[in-house]
Design goal:
globular; 289 residues; Rossmann fold; 10 helices; 30% helix; 2 domains; Alpha-Beta Plaits
Length: 289
């Protein structure tokens, strides 16, 4: 066990932000924290990174363990290029550009960071953290501003870091991103944690999915659904299809000809989170076996 949190509490004045946080984590795990804005995820990560002090409780990490991560919006020296930023910020001066190459930074090494898009800044920030070679990696909303290619790269890179024995703690509102590659999921609600293992999520897995389709003109797609006998709901420019069990690609192909602009599906993790958030009381205890 390389990380243990015991009864962590954090108060700002009279407000309890974190209450009775208990967590055990080991090498080679990817653990996700999920919660609404302001629920305390970033505060907990700040405590782990030494940027904030808990009001009470213990954070047990061996002094030999290096912890590194990113919080909120990445900050760099905007007047310097990416190469100079990495050289200045990287404490171990490790000459390793593998991560920069994987995240597509090598082509922009000599471009001033102030000219980077937010997505490129995010790629640079994640690359920097990985170049630090920490045993514990903390990523707060890493998919923010990343395009789909960047998100897929991130997922593959993190799986490789897991294979190296790294512990990865990650928060994200992108539940589709988290759903199929994390080992454990903790919902942070009301200042407390509830564990939802991937095994538990799989137990609740069904062969049907809820899909959302967006159109320029939703009225053009409605006759198709009526003809196919598919139940649906319409809200502005969106069509909601619930508990759909058939192969979806053929339906998407039909919709493309009628102004389809986007479609996506709810994940099991998303449904589980919404179910808990809508429950009557937000008081939970972590389920440790």
């Amino acid at each position: 066990m390389i990380l243990e949190l015991r009864n962590i509490e954090k108060k700002y004045r009279s407000k309890n932000v974190l209450t009775n946080i208990n967590l055990q984590a080991d090498k080679g795990e990817i653990i996700a924290l999920v919660g609404e804005n302001g629920c305390g995820k970033s505060t907990l990560f700040k405590i782990l990174l030494g940027l904030a002090k808990q009001t009470s409780g213990e954070v047990l990490i061996d002094k030999s363990i290096k912890v590194s991560g990113i919080l909120e919006e990445p900050a760099f020296y905007n007047y310097l290029d990416a190469k100079d930023n990495i050289t200045l910020l990287l404490k171990n001066k490790k000459d390793n550009e593998d991560y920069l190459n994987q995240f597509g930074i090598n082509d922009y090494l000599y471009k001033k960071v102030k000219k980077f898009s937010q997505g490129m800044k995010q790629r640079l920030a994640i690359s920097y953290v990985l170049l630090e070679d920490p045993q514990i990696i903390i990523l707060d909303e890493p998919t923010n501003t990343l395009d789909p290619v960047g998100i897929e790269i991130l997922k593959n890179v993190l799986l490789k870091e897991k294979e190296k024995g790294k512990l990865i703690l990650i928060s994200s509102h992108d539940l589709y991103f988290l759903n199929d590659f994390v080992d454990k999921v903790y919902f942070l609600i009301g200042g407390e944690l509830q564990e939802k293992t991937t095994a538990l999520i799989e137990e609740n897995f069904t062969n049907s999915f809820d899909y959302i389709f967006e159109f320029n003109d939703v009225n053009l797609a409605v006759p198709i659904l009526k003809e196919l006998g598919i139940e649906y709901k319409v809200n502005q420019n969106k069509i909601y299809i619930l508990n759909y069990k058939d192969e979806i690609n053929s339906l998407v192909k039909k919709f493309i000809n009628f102004g389809l602009t986007a479609f996506y599906k709810d994940t099991n993790l998303s449904k589980e989170y919404v179910k808990i958030v809508k429950s009557e009381k937000w008081i939970f205890k972590i389920n440790q076996e």
